[in-house]
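> tool_call: predict_assembly(chains=two)
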Amino acid sequence: MSDTIEIPPRSGDAFRMRSGDSLTVIDPCGRQVADLLAFNAEDLGEVISSGRTLDYAETIRLTTGHRLYSNRSRVMLDIVEDTVGMHDFLLTPCSVDTFDHFYPDLPRHRGCFGNLAAALEPHGVQPDRIPVAFNCFMNVPVDGETGRLQVLPPLSGPGDHIRFVARMDLVIGLTACSAPASNGGSFKPIRYRVDRA
Amino acid sequence: MSDTIEIPPRSGDAFRMRSGDSLTVIDPCGRQVADLLAFNAEDLGEVISSGRTLDYAETIRLTTGHRLYSNRSRVMLDIVEDTVGMHDFLLTPCSVDTFDHFYPDLPRHRGCFGNLAAALEPHGVQPDRIPVAFNCFMNVPVDGETGRLQVLPPLSGPGDHIRFVARMDLVIGLTACSAPASNGGSFKPIRYRVDRA
């Protein structure tokens, strides 16, 4: 069993995984979101793709048994365990611009986008390559009649987690989300653990 | 009034627009999909973003009055007219891989992805930069309870159209979609017209 690492509130991290490694993302306090990105470690042009994944899964509600695909239609990660069952794969990471849009009265923050860009920069990932993230624990219900979407507090409680297995060598970006609406109005850490194959 | 251009069935085109130009995408026969991509003509790293757009719009049902944003949170296109009201912004363009997945018994086809990659190549766009497209007339209802999504025949009839105004200089990619399910099982042309500002 490897060490569990804590991502402090409103910050991010990046790390490598080998094919077969397992990544567990843990919400230690409950009602906290973690934006997850994945890039092919050998060729950064290959990146996690919401559009490919939702097309193949035929659902926006991804959980145990679903596979996360790249823009080249190859499996990057399998979801092998999930104690929550509600995650978002529609929205891009919050940023300075989304803070200006949704929270004009709050202090500006670089958000998950800025945290991911900073954490991924040493791995060679350019900010413009950051796509829609797989937002662990983010609760974004869609009204089937009107199409309206809402960002509600996560359904996760303390200790809830989701576990992925890498299906190629990956660079992973991961955050403890910075947007008030995503986390029920408070900022908390995220923990993760990589178990080597 | 400029000329109307026809995109033959199962093919694609790419062209430039200046800020202020208007683009009308027309379904001449009805029940046909047109995948639309947009890149900043001056800096191809800036690209249309489903995640930013859905976040700001707070709906997956985009129509007249909605704005299509880039990955840098800037407005690329405004929707100024829409006779259908049902378009998709969740799924990536169909490709050889999606044909293998959904239609293993049909002849392979490079799909909208291959058509867009070929049409955009002379403009300097790399295939890996093709994100979720704004899929004009594509009918992808989402079940709000289960999250299940379906690809149903478009609601568009002959002559239905959607009109956009460019808010920056753009490279546009546009297709007449190649996937049976998207078009009610038949392949038809798409027409478009660019009216200069």
